[in-house]
Amino acid sequence: MGAVKTVLALGDVIGQSGFRAVVTSLTGIRKKHGADAVILNVENTADGFGITEELAGKLLAAGADVLTTGNHIWRKKEVREYLDRQEFILRPANYPGGVPGHGSCVLERRGLTLGVLNLQGRRRMPQTDCPFKLGREFVRRLRERTHCIVIDFHAEATEEKEALAMYLDGEVSAIFGTHTHIQTADERILPKGTAYITDIGASGPIDSVIGFQPDISIQRSLTQLPLRNEVSDNRAAVHGVRIEIDPASGRALSIVRIREESLI
Ligand SMILES: [Fe+2]
């Protein structure tokens, strides 16, 4: 076994508050955990919906190696051309063929060759191609280059997330969920060596309803009116996981939850 490699996966950056927290704390978080690579989901960065080239550039400069996204990636139209150009920002791989951007990449960092794949669920989500069949095909192609592969599965339903994890157990190093914004406590190594957690949590405001203003969510629940969510802007916490990988086999050795409260 070669030197153990450490990958951090950090959750959905939500609005200004989440962006500030990540930009100011990422260098420290990288150092504290001895990270060889950092994957960051950014699909709620621009006012809660989508990402811009400018914000993505700042997050990459702050120490994120690969940016993953999800269903809100299409909100800012101008980002589409950037998705084609920037190798290390991903949109879910299982959108129909021909849409802008790409769903996987291979990163070389500190002696680690890491495949990163972004998939999206289909339960209470936009209807995309099958994340199971397409996911396995993408994994097969990535394994021609490396056995160290992590998947951001951007999905709503726990059952779908656990099913995909069991389906690909042993073929990838880790599968972590994003999108629901609340960190779950079910992190574990699956029987064939894949690390798994249903949701890594968000990097966003603490006093909020999944990152958004509580008043609006309460009113929406009380009235059933289609009120539009707006991001909260109070102090944030950065959530995620640290995954240790044996680079020779690609098997996960550990998965540990991370929570760092921002000071601003
Ligand atoms: Fe999402």
Quick recap:
The protein is α/β, with parallel strands linked by helices. Helices cover 25% and strands 26% of the residues.
Explain what you see.
- The chain has 264 residues and is of the alpha/beta class.
- It has one domain (5-205, 237-261): Purple Acid Phosphatase, chain A, domain 2 (4-Layer Sandwich).
- The protein is built from 6 helices and 12 strands.
- The protein has helices spanning 15-33, 53-61, 79-85, 131-142, 158-167, 214-223; strands spanning 5-10, 37-41, 66-68, 104-109, 112-120, 149-154, 174-178, 188-189, 195-197, 203-205, 236-245, 252-261.
- Strands 1, 2, 3, 10, 11 and 12 form a 6-stranded mixed β-sheet that branches. The protein has a 6-stranded mixed β-sheet with strand order 4-5-6-7-9-8, with helices on one face.
- The longest helix is centred in the N-terminal third of the chain and has 19 residues, at 15-33.
- It is globular and about 55 Å long.
- The mean pLDDT is 96.
- Bound molecules: fe (ii) ion.
- Fe (ii) ion (FE2) binds at residues 43, 70-72, 154, 179.
Q: Report mean pLDDT, rounded to a whole number.
A: 96
Oligomeric status? single chain
> Any idea of the CATH topology?
Purple Acid Phosphatase, chain A, domain 2
Radius of gyration equals 17 Å
Outline: globular
Q: Approximately how much helix is present in the residues?
A: 25-40%
Number of domains: 1
Bound molecules: fe (ii) ion
**Strand coverage percent:** 25-35%
How many helices does DSSP assign? 6
Which superfamily, in CATH terms, is the homologous superfamily?
A: Metallo-dependent phosphatases
